[in-house]
Amino acid sequence: MSIDFSTLQVDDVDSLVSVLEQQLGDTATDWWNANKTVVPGYLRSLAEATIQTRTALANHQITPQAADMILHNQELAFNQTIQFTKFMTLALGQTLLNTVFQVVGWVIYNKTGVNIAPNLVQPTPPATS
User: Fold this and answer.
1) d(Cα 15, Cα 89) in Å, to the nearest integer?
2) pLDDT per residue over 47-76, tens digit each?
3) Structure pTM?
4) What angle, rounded to 10 degrees, do the helices at 38-58 and 64-112 form?
5) Phi and psi based region of residue 113 (left: phi greater than 0; alpha: psi -120 to 50; beta: remaining)
6) What angle do CA 122, 128, 129 make, to 5 degrees?
7) 48 exposed, middle or buried (CB, 10 Å; 0-12, 13-18, 19+)?
């Protein structure tokens, strides 16, 4: 259920917490659905490449030196995947923080008309004829 922030009226802490829970849950779910296959896909690909390298080495299709170089590159790729995962965690944290400030910003704007977060709270100007 999407919230129409322009009409959001929050009069007590319980209502604010309820709206925040809903928005944070929706934001986290959207993020997870968009990103849940990325890291497992990388890890699966790296695992398959490692198995192929070890099989090729066992079958004498590549030299031990080539296998060492390939496995070293796969190790580097794995470390990049770990760094990417850390970055994505920070990106999710920032997205959740923005969601909190967006909700609070709209609550304040709708109560007072003061926009304390113009990058997150962007009311539509009234139509003029």
Assistant:
1) 28
2) 999 999 999 999 999 999 999 999 999 999
3) 0.71
4) 180
5) left
6) 155
7) exposed
